[in-house]
Design goal:
alpha/beta; TIM Barrel; eight-stranded parallel barrel; three-stranded mixed sheet; 17 helices; 15 strands
Length: 503
Amino acid sequence: MRLSRRKFVQSILGASAALGLPAAFSACSGSSKASTPAPARDSALQFQAASTTFPKGFFWGTATASYQIEGAWNEDGKGESIWDRFAHTPGKIKNGDTGDVACDSYHRWREDIALIRAMNLNSYRFSISWPRIQASGSGAANSKGVDYYSRLVDALLEARIRPLVTLYHWDLPQALEDAGGWTNRDTAGRFTDYVQLMAQALGDRVADWMIFNEPDAFVDLGHLEGTHAPGRQSILDFLRATHVVNLAQSGGFRALKAARPSARVGTAFSMSPCEPATDSEADKLAAERAHAITNTWFLEPALRGRYPDALAFLPETAMRIKAGDMEKTRAPLDFIGINLYYRTIASAPGTMERFSHAQEWLFPVKMDGGQQGPKTDFGWEVWPKALYDMVTRITRDYNRPVIEITESGCSYNDGPDASGAIHDRRRIEYHRQYLAALARAMADGADVRGYHAWSLLDNFEWAEGFSQRFGLAYVDFKTQQRTIKDSGRWYGKVATENRVGPA
């Protein structure tokens, strides 16, 4: 799932200054002149009036990630991941929580499938733990790890639920991190080998694959901000990891297609529409740069073999781009996965140091979350129009690609009442409004094939530990008892009827 990027640029500038690099330079980076506030945009409440029927065959799903739900962190030959190491490091995770047990889905996966069936969903997006397949990130596949996912896939198919498999949702084998991790070009080759193993093991039954989950998030938060595993704080690591991940994305795509030519392959990109804070030219330029780093940093290399034009000033030497690399990053994805939670407000920093040469270093833009809409318990703005804006822009900019909403959701920490029921009305309204906005985007021409609510279960929410609950099902982490919330029952009715009704 996506976490806020509000400190992204501040981290970029701070890190570059620490390295002795110029912070930024731009003819329009300073205080802007006609910086009147941008017109307030109506949130997507306008989208919720009428009932909406979705196309026949639409995928109604939910999503999880291996480290967040599986537990069994050192069982059956699984190797240590960077999240095992990070969570076991004091001070890294809120309340000292770890994913050692999480939702114990490694042992309780049948209960999870029962929840999906009870909600009448027809798609389940889950991820494979790379170190459960290759403990050290290389070599032969661990048969017990493969068997676990094979049983899961078989059970999903028996229940008439599509398995939508994410190959990498952030849990890199620690042995590869020790050898340089995503900053080491060799990791792209290791990843390709791993993808090949999984295509051979599951490709006879799995037709739909996601290469990465939110590459910009794990590269940024793990290598620049240091708030996620592996906890690095280096601008050079961020830039180098970016390029290696882009090479790995294309390598994984080719490996899947080579093993299973009919496979449908995409990546789940974290996205957020970037609005200028004012109508000034400086803020409009900042919004385009924010869009490039937030939404197309890993999409442009795949679809067009280049980094976004708005960030063309980035130094190739710092990113370790070799001759012919950009052609190698191409991966004509069969569909684009969009993970979306909120919008971003972009502005040009008010004061920027100027230099004698006309080159900007890195990203002279400030990004903040919106403040007009209601907030979730995580403090994120609920702004359904963000989904409409993002889907329609990707549709326009990339010639109407096939899209799946691979994550959208909200944290509300409602607990059981005296009878054990969980009345999470706010979560119902969140999904109702975001689905209405999605339906409007589809009516306006977007080719969207599915929606996956984050998440099936309350789970381990990365650096937040167990303090934030996104699930359609409540989990008592002491007993591991699962209880479908009111939102899960409502979502199940939506899936059954293939329509979203008015509030």
